[in-house]
Each structure stands twice: as C-alpha cells, then as structure tokens.
C-alpha cells in the first residue's frame, strides 16, 4: 500500500515554462516532506524539503507547496531547463530527524528545448 | 569529501546464487539505509541502521535477504538464494540523525542486480 503517491509517471514541459509535479500522501503522521531528483545511473539527490508548519518553501527556481488538509504537495520548477530532465521522487517522514523516509514511485520529467 | 560508495555497480548472476552488495557510508554519518528501486514500487526501504544497530527491517522482503553493519564504515546486503524477481537497483544511503539536519539522505550510485 503506497503511502506516498505520485500518480503521474511522466511529464513533458517546454523549456522556460513551469513544471508542476504532484504528490499525495495517506499517512496523517507524516509531517516532513522532501523532494529528490535522480539522473540515470546516479543515486537520488536531495532537492528541497518542507515541514508541515509551513505551506510553502522556495529555493531558487524550485518551490514546494504543501496542503495539509488535502494531504497534497507539489513541486514547481520555474523556469524549466533541459538540465531539469530527471526522475523526481516525493518523500515523507514522521518528523524532521525521524529517519524512516517513505518514497513515492517517481515522476519522470522531460524538459524539451 | 567522498560520498556513499557502493560495490559492485553491476552484478549479473544466476538464480540460486548468493549475492553480496557492499556499502561504505559517509564518514561521521550515524544512520545507514538500504533501499531497492523497481519500476513498479519505486524506492522501497528495506532496512536501516543507527550506530551500526538494525532499527527497522520490516521492509526486508523475505528471509533470503539479510543485512549487516559490522562497523561504522561498512555494511552488506546479502541475498541467498537469489531469484529473478530480486532484479532491481539497490541503493545505500546515509545521514546524520541530529535534529538540526534537514532529514536529507545521501545516496550512493546504486548496485544494479540482474538475476537470470
């Protein structure tokens, strides 16, 4: 039973436009959320995180939005660049410092030049 | 500074053979994780250690899987006997368990296992 769901297996976006990756979760105990990016033949790398006490966290071109009542978060990339083409994993844990992190199955983003 | 180091990067073996995957975490990190990536299930947590002690192995699929961490700088994941359905990419990750960190995991490059 997937506690972190990424329902879109893939997404294609034109360079310069906004990419929006969505994630839903079912475990109400989750209160810390992370996004990881993975290139082929490499391990996932941390991208951005958000605590449940916030509804938005921004880092450069990347913004994560959290809607706790809907158990939904999204990652916005603006503007999208070809180098952003990768698999993006949504992840969640029951608190910052609680180490058991649950991942979604990933969304493959392709940014078309 | 060296990241998480995994070996082998690729392993092809025949059904029934023993497979051992190895991991060296980042020095100073006190948590070590083994994940498995498949197309159908994404990244699944198999087991994690804190200060070399296994904390949660509920993700280990079967008794054929075992993991050890004999010291702070080395861990193994063993599959015996291996089966074709074990074919996947196995990732090792490490992190710092302090409350001040971001909860971020540092992953190795993975070991791609193919069981024929």
Q: If you had to describe this structure to a student in words, what would you say it looks like?
A:
The complex is a heterodimer of chains A (113) and B (116). Chain A is mainly β and 113 residues long. Chain A has strands at residues 4-5, 10-14, 19-25, 32-38, 45-51, 56-59, 62-67, 72-77, 86-93, 102-103, 107-112. In chain A, strands 2, 4, 5, 9, 10 and 11 form a six-stranded mixed β-sheet that branches. Chain A has a five-stranded antiparallel β-sheet with strand order 1-3-8-7-6, with no helix packed on it. In chain A, a hairpin with a 6-residue loop joins β4 (32-38) and β5 (45-51). Chain A is globular and about 40 Å long. The relative contact order of chain A is 0.34. The mean pLDDT of chain A is 93. Chain B is an all-beta fold. In chain B, strands 2, 4, 5, 6, 9, 10 and 11 form a seven-stranded mixed β-sheet that branches. A four-stranded antiparallel β-sheet of chain B has the order 1-3-8-7, with no helix packed on it. At the A-B interface, β4, β5, β9 and β10 of A face β4, β5, β9 and β10 of B.
């Amino acid at each position: 039973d997937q506690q972190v769901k990424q329902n879109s297996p893939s997404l294609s976006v034109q360079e310069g436009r906004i990419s929006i990756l969505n994630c839903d979760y079912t475990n109400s105990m989750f209160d810390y959320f992370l996004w990881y990016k993975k290139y082929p033949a490499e391990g996932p790398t941390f991208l951005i995180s958000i605590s449940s006490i916030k509804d938005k966290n921004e880092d450069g071109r990347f913004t994560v939005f959290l809607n706790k009542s809907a158990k939904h978060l999204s990652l916005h990339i603006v503007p999208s660049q070809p180098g952003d083409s990768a698999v993006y994993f949504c992840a969640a844990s029951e608190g910052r410092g609680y180490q058991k992190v649950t991942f979604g199955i990933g969304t493959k983003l392709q940014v078309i030049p | 500074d060296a990241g998480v180091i995994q070996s082998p990067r690729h392993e092809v073996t025949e059904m029934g053979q023993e497979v051992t995957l190895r991991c060296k975490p980042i020095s100073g990190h006190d948590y070590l994780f083994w994940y498995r990536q498949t197309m159908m299930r994404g990244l699944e947590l198999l087991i994690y250690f804190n200060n070399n002690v296994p904390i949660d192995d509920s993700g280990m699929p079967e008794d054929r899987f075992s993991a050890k961490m004999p010291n702070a700088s080395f861990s193994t994941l063993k599959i015996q006997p291996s089966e074709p359905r074990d074919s996947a990419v196995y990732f090792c990750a490490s992190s710092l368990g302090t409350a001040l960190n971001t909860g971020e995991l540092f992953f190795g490059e993975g070991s791609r296992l193919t069981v024929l």
